[in-house]
Amino acid sequence: MEIRVFETMQEASVAGAEIIAAAMQGRAHFVLGLATGSTPVPLYRELARRNAAGELDFSGTHSYNLDEYVGLDGSHSQSFRYFMDDNLFHHINIDPANTHVPSGTGADHAADARAYDAAIEAEGGIDLQVLGVGNNGHIGFNEPDSVFHAPTHIVDLTDSTIDANSRFFERREDVPRQAITLGMGGIMRARKVLLFAFGAVKADAVRAMVRGEVDPRCPASILQLHGDTTVLLDKAAASKL
Ligand code: GLP
Fold this sequence. Notes:
The protein is of the alpha/beta class. 30% of the residues lie in helices and 18% in strands.
């Protein structure tokens, strides 16, 4: 893992956008894995700025998001589809038909999960995956567990994640209890991974990810085994390294 520490999250996000732009350079077809949460918002603003300035072209980009809440469709303001449209897709020249977010509202989640993995594979795999990290070390919605789950799957969210994400909902009871998430296999197959973490609230998870054992109880620790992962931190998130 390459660890880079910046004074501010804004600087880390600009550096991340630079890495993405360099990876996309000259590529007529590019598969970009995307994440939600508050962490990538400044990155998405910077990508949109570069697009508006004519510096970055998304017309050949196919995006695949990590996860979605079970039970929320794209019209729900807390769904990850809504978040992505609102924070990125509506502000760049990506073809909406090329943006993919797992569906958490289908009748057969297992079939939807298999189809999602198959679609990524048919696309040639993810070129670059953007990640945040949960306070408990989750990536996507791969929660701490006794094993790593490889394929896209349904997961029961932990109390810690429900608590953390309740800030986006009116009431804690409104936070969905389940999600559909790309599994560890999908994340690890991405050719390049950029993980962002900001704030003191992430410092323990960052330490466990970087310095701890590779252990499914800190899902992000598996990235120690990924050959091309860059971790972009602000000072607070790096404070326990
Ligand atoms: C979520 C997402 C993750 C994200 C994490 C941290 O619920 N499923 O992809 O990295 O929580 O969120 P935040 O960036 O808001 O701290």
